[in-house]
Amino acid sequence: MYMKKNLPKKQGIKHFEPHSVLYLTGDANYSRIHLLNGKVFLSSYNLKWFAQKWPSFLRLHKQALVNPAYVHHLSVAPTLQSASYVVMQDQVQLPISRRRVSGIVYHFRQV
């Protein structure tokens, strides 16, 4: 299902298994890849590229893509004035855009 991705980086090419990735954050046209072991790598690919290559990852908003296997907690706001977010396995909170909340909740109810 998942394929190893070879990603160019400054010191050469780094090989990533998707199951070792907690989440990705967007930084302009680059992505920061946050791994289970706590390391962070910068990739020249944007989040859209990763979302297409790893379809099981969830897009929370325009700057975050998460591996749902490592979502520790989902907090849904009762009103639009407060923010919904996910807490990842490493205790990092990532916000969910208002337009994507229903899709994210639906995904986790199906699991």
UniProtKB/TrEMBL annotation:
Put simply, this protein is called LytTR family transcriptional regulator
Organism this protein belongs to: Spirosoma telluris
Query: HTH LytTR-type domain: which residues?
Result: 11-109
The GO terms this record gives for MF are:
DNA binding
One Pfam family name is LytTR
Please indicate which superkingdom the organism of origin belongs to: Bacteria
Write down the InterPro entries for this protein, in alphabetical order: LytTR_DNA-bd_dom
Which SMART domains does this entry report, sorted A to Z? LytTR (SM00850)
